[in-house]
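Support reply, case 0932

Customer input (verbatim):
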Amino acid sequence: MSVLKKLFRLMPDGAQSAVHGLVENLPWTRRGRHSRWVRNTYSKFGHDQRRLIFLSAARFLHINRPITGYYLEFGCNEAKTMRMAWDNFQYLFDFTYVGFDSFEGLPEIAKIDEQENWKKGKLAFSEERFRDICLGHGIPKDRFRTVRGFYDKSLTPDLARELSARKAAVIYIDCDLYLSTVPILAWISPFLQVGTIIVFDDWNCFCADPERGERRAWREFLKANSDLRFEPFVSTAEGQAFICVNVDTGLVSNIELTN
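Our regenerated output:
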């Protein structure tokens, strides 16, 4: 037995685990190669796919200018997409950035949204930390706001009236669940304008089953609002974007009056 192996066996269990993990992550080991692939290829692919959506949105909005207003983001975990939105929009548009999230993680998972990955409280991220990251990234404080709460409670008629001075340029929906997407779509109607881009980050969740998740909520929304018309825009391995091509002003007024 080599001296190194003898020394290793004399170490406490905690130290052995630490050394084992360090050795396995060395670049020439299988685990090291795996970690490098995940970091440099797999994760980068996901990042680049989202960046494609934001750059495509910036290009579309700029070509069809002026389309101004809000960047509304529903699901703000770790501030990655909010920062990406700012990075790709800041030089062309004077958007106001609004992040909507419970900041407590996922709600209680109903049967229709059950999936092995989802658990109540998963993806929790503090509002204070989210704000600090966004403001530290350069988003101006006077053009940034957060709205805390689960969507069936926080998306109220009063909030819609409070924000009604502007329409939405981009609406980014990253909430995974059918029952979370439904109240978002019901609430955003007054903010739609011709050219509004709606992005569903988790379009292919639930194995792209049209009877579940964001796909089902969107289909039901379109059926209930047949006077609204959208065209498909950017599609990626995870997400799908649509462009609003006409807005029924009567629909918007009805929503405001009935609430």
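We compared this against your earlier run and they match. Two observations from our side: Residues 234 and 241 are 5 Å apart (CA to CA). The chain has one domain: 45-258. Please reopen the case if you see a mismatch on your end.
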